[in-house]
């Protein structure tokens, strides 16, 4: 029977030393693996956090971009709306400008028409027997109409026209001339007494009138027609003395000679 063999103390110690030598590097290697694994896990965690942060940032930027795009779309729509409104307003302004121009043209035409209508009603500057004055159109019309009557020899109508004129326009600038021609119309219708009265009124009121010498001569002619030769001579003498250089005075001298 074999007997068990135990290692000797020296051998055991050597063996133990060798075993320790082997175990220490193995444990160190295991420790280093754990550190590396932990570092990798830390890196992976940091990378995951970074990726999460990047994804969050990208999502945020995408949301901001979407919001900006919507804002730009809204702004673009507003700009289009404003452009449309501006175009509409421009069209309205152009229409208003056309309407204003048309209104101004109509007002101008109406003003011209009104001026043309009022012009005949405005006083006009006239000159009669060397006298200038302002006369209403109706005054001038009636005076011209009466003059037309006396030129046509319609003395009865002329007397009525002149008499009516003096009643309607007693302060007219035509009044003196109207009285002179009224006397002539009365003379023409052989109403000598009325003619004498009219001429005398005319001369008394207007001794410096251009027609005054003619009026005295007309009075003398009326007196001759009434067979009042004495009064006729006196009137002719007064005419020659008052207006010696007038055409009527020369005619008066001839008339006096014919009365002798």
Structure notes:
With 260 residues, this protein is mainly alpha-helical. The chain folds into two domains: 29-120; 124-259, Serine Threonine Protein Phosphatase 5, Tetratricopeptide repeat (Alpha Horseshoe). Helix content is 80%, strand content 4%. It has a two-stranded antiparallel sheet with strand order 1-2. Strand 1 (124-128) and strand 2 form a beta hairpin. Helix 7 (229-242) runs antiparallel to helix 8 (247-259). The protein is rod-shaped and about 210 Å long. The model has no long low-confidence stretch (mean pLDDT 85).
Question: What is the arithmetic mean of pLDDT?
Answer: 85
What Rg do the Cα atoms give? Answer: 68 Å
Low-confidence parts lasting 5 or more residues at pLDDT below 50?
none
- Highest-level CATH class of the largest domain: Mainly Alpha
The helix content, as a percent range, equals over 70%
Structural class: mainly alpha
The secondary-structure element order is HEEHHHHHHH
- Kindly give the count of domains: 2
**CATH homology superfamily of the largest domain:** Tetratricopeptide repeat domain
What is the CATH architecture descriptor of the largest domain?
Alpha Horseshoe
Give the SSE map.
Layout: H1 9-118, E1 124-128, E2 131-135, H2 137-151, H3 155-168, H4 175-188, H5 192-205, H6 212-225, H7 229-242, H8 247-259
List keywords for this structure.
260 residues; mainly alpha; Serine Threonine Protein Phosphatase 5, Tetratricopeptide repeat; two-stranded antiparallel ribbon; rod-shaped
């Amino acid at each position: 029977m074999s007997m068990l063999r135990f290692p000797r103390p020296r051998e055991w110690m050597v063996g133990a030393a060798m075993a320790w030598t082997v175990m220490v590097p193995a444990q160190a290697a295991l420790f280093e693996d754990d550190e590396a694994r932990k570092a990798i896990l830390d890196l992976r965690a940091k990378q995951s956090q970074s990726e999460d942060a990047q994804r969050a940032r990208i999502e945020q930027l995408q949301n901001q971009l979407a919001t900006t795009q919507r804002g730009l779309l809204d702004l673009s729509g507003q700009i289009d709306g404003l452009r449309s409104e501006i175009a509409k307003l421009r069209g309205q302004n152009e229409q208003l400008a056309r309407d204003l121009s048309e209104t101004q043209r109509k007002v101008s035409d109406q003003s011209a028409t009104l001026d043309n209508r009022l012009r005949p009603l405005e006083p006009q500057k006239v000159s009669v027997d060397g006298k200038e004055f302002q006369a209403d159109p109706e005054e001038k019309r009636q005076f011209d109409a009466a003059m037309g009557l006396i030129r046509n020899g319609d003395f009865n109508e002329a007397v009525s026209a002149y008499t009516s004129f003096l009643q309607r326009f007693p302060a007219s600038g035509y009044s003196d001339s109207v009285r002179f021609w009224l006397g002539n119309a009365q003379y023409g219708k052989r109403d000598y007494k009325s003619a004498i009265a009219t001429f005398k009124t005319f001369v008394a009121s207007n001794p410096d009138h251009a027609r005054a010498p003619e009026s005295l001569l007309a009075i003398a002619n009326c007196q001759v027609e009434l067979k009042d030769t004495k009064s006729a001579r006196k009137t002719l003498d007064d005419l020659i003395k008052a207006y010696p250089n007038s055409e009527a005075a020369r005619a008066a001298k001839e008339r006096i000679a014919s009365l002798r």
